[in-house]
Structures are given as structure tokens and as C-alpha cells.
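Consider the following assembly input.
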Amino acid sequence: MTRSKSKSFPARDSYHHGDLHSTLVEAAEHLLEKQGLSALSMREVAKLAGVSHSAPYRHFRGKAGLLEAVAQAGFNRLAVMINGAHDAYPDDPEAQLRAAGVAYVEWATENPERTHLMYGGMMKSEDVPETLHACAEDAYAGIFHIIDEGRQAGVFGGDDTDSVVISAWAVVHGLTMLILGSGKVNPANPGEVRQLALRVCDTILDGIRSRTGTGDQPS
Amino acid sequence: MTRSKSKSFPARDSYHHGDLHSTLVEAAEHLLEKQGLSALSMREVAKLAGVSHSAPYRHFRGKAGLLEAVAQAGFNRLAVMINGAHDAYPDDPEAQLRAAGVAYVEWATENPERTHLMYGGMMKSEDVPETLHACAEDAYAGIFHIIDEGRQAGVFGGDDTDSVVISAWAVVHGLTMLILGSGKVNPANPGEVRQLALRVCDTILDGIRSRTGTGDQPS
DNA sequence: CATCTGATGTTACCAGTGTCAACATTCATG
DNA sequence: CATGAATGTTGACACTGGTAACATCAGATG
């Protein structure tokens, strides 16, 4: 935040940069989506930010630290989007879930490299600090909230909320990975992505919906 | 294949190695699961295989080529497992899907780094060659086969087979990613993984099952 | 205002990496 | 046996992540 001009990075006037921390994160995000994760180098980020190759180490504990910050920002945005979907459709858990799912798939497919960073495990999980876990948990908590309310309202069924959340989270995340995974499922335009996301959401809703209220219980 | 002793790598007698190609792949798989993807270096693989740091380039077009071979082997195993699940439960599409799903989740969580390699996108998708796509497609085709048969038998519903396959594939893959993603969903023992996989499969089966036969068609 | 201190940025350097070119050795085939 | 294609080795190159020593600045303190 606190930085509007997002295209001219090298803004530099005095010896001290002023806000290197955020500038580095932005530069990393920029290069990440442009060149891919494997081609991202610390030195290039520094160069794009207009500082020497060693300056970033005053702000992040190594490359992992910088990538971690990028991932964290991503999880934060994710959590915001999910909560936004919740607030946009009060008292309509199905619409909330659909909106959250579509938003997630759309955002992730628009930012493929960042999504890979967030879930790709390029950082061994033992090294991932607590703060990142907390951010990912925030996003998870958003979906948990939606489904928990939905279950209390009798819209969703299932034995316990967590297992329902896992299923819902998993389809959406899985579809994303399939789209990103280049192999199968390769939609051309964003509209098609939305279509796919909606269909998957409807399928999982069919599996999640409470069956005690509508009178149908397959043997 | 054609190589049983999997622990003593440096087996070397003459100037020429004899079967460097497979040995390198095995060495890479070994180091991959041991040290993680980001810490995997070409030179270390070569050293473990007992050859000079430059020898691998006679067999693979760079690091990407080697990793690509590892990923390809993974997809092949995946396809075999899926087809095995199909053959193990003839005329029972639900059991086939469950078995395939559980097998996939179990294998993937037992080989987390390889799974990340396969789907993590450490290789920009433009660079992924056709052969890899073909292998991934084989695995996809296995699930397609199961669901297509199931739909023809009236067990599964849905508008078209592909969208059903995507949903099924997505839950299973998504659950895997959640388990690997370290954040939420962190089961201790393999039995718990199986449990989770089964539950997710049942949920998606509830969403996939044909509704025209049992008399329920939500408006 | 002078000065000291800590934060921030720079340069120089190191080990390690991916990759290639030149050379060495072996295998196969005439 | 000679010869060329495979295969393996050595040595180099540019680049990377990371650290240490030095330079510059902002701000508190006198």
C-alpha cells in the first residue's frame, strides 16, 4: 500500500531509498509474473528496485524471506476476496460459496506464478514460518465461516464442518491447479474460466447440500 | 525398470557407465525426496550417480530435461495406478473412482516433492514438451474412462463427461495439495490420509451421482 | 549546532550452480 | 585394425545467493 505509481520502479533520489521493503515486494511480484518462479533472481529484483544486489538482505532474510512476503501478500488478498464474497450475499451460503470459488479461481489463474509460489512448495514446509501459516489459515477460515454458517442454517450437510470445508476448498483449488497445470483443462478466455469454476462449484454444492431437509436420501 | 538394487548408486566399473540415463533419473528422484526441489542440483545428482558434473548433459537437455523425465515417470505411475483401480472393481464405477482417488492421494502425499515437481510449475508451461503433456493426459484419460463408463451405466450424471471428470480430478488433486501445502489439513499418519481421501471422494460422489434414476431433480 | 549511533545502502568477495566447448575414452562397425 | 559415433571428463564462463567491510545518511543527545 501507500504506493500508487506501480510502473516506474527505480524512483530514487537520495542515498536511502525510503520504502525499499514494499518496493522490493512489488518488484518481486512483477518479475515473478513476467519471468516465472524458477527464473527469478534476487539480484534482478534488486536491480529493478534500483538498488545494489545486496540491499535486499537488510530487509528480508534471504530469498526465501522475500518470496515468503510475496506469498503472504497473496494469502491476504485471498482472505479479503473470500470475506468479500461472504459479505456480498448475506444469508445466502450457496451464493457466498459460489462467489468465493469463482473469485479464487479467477484470481489464481490471472496470477499463475504467484499461485504456484503460494502452494508450490518451493520452500520446504519446515522452513515456512508461523506468519505464513497464519495468513493461509485466514483464507481457510473465511471458507470455514461461510460453510459453518451454512450448516447452521441447514443449507449444508455433512458430519463436521471441517470435512465439508476441505471438500469445497479442494475442488476449487484443484480446478485452479488443473488450469495452471497446462496439461488438460486449458481454457482460452477468462470467461471460460468463470464458466468452469461455476460448474465445479455447482457440482460440489450438489455434494454438500443438506439432504435431510429436501426429503431425498439415496439408499 | 531393469534395475533392482536401488540403494548403491555409484556402481561403476568401466569408463562408460552403461545405463546412466536411468541411474540419473533414480538419483534425481532420491535427492528430490531427500532434499527438496529447490535444493536439488545437477552436479549433486551427477555425483550421486558417480559421474562427472557434466555427464548428464549427454542424456538430458539440461536440468529441465532431467526434472521433466522425473515428472514423466511420476505421471506414468499415476496412470498405472488409476487404470489398476479401474480393473480392480469391474462394473462398479463408484468403487473405481474411490480406489483411484485414494491411491492418488496416498501416493502423492508419500512423494510430496515429486508431486510438487509434477504440478508445481517450476517449468514454465511453454517449455514443457509434448511428451510430458501426453503422459499427464494418460492419467487424465484413466479417470475419464472410469467416469465415462459410469455415466453410460447410469451411475453418474452431469451434462458432459469432461466437466464431471474435472470436478472429480479437482477434489482429489486439491485435497492432495492441501495436505502437502502444510498449512491446514495436516494429518499425522497415512491412515488418516486414507480417511480424508475417502471422505472427499464420498462427497464428490454425492455431487456426481445420477439424479434422474433415484427420483430427485432439484429445480 | 556538533557529534555519536544505528539503520540503510554499496562494494568486494566467496562458494556453488547451470551450461558449454574441447579433449579423452570406449564401443561398434567397416 | 581403423575410423567414427557415443559417452564421459576437464576446464572454463557467467551468474546466483549470501556475507563482511565500508560508506552514507537520519535522528537523538549533548
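Residues 98 and 202 of chain A are 8 Å apart (CA to CA). Ask yourself how this observation constrains the way the partners meet.
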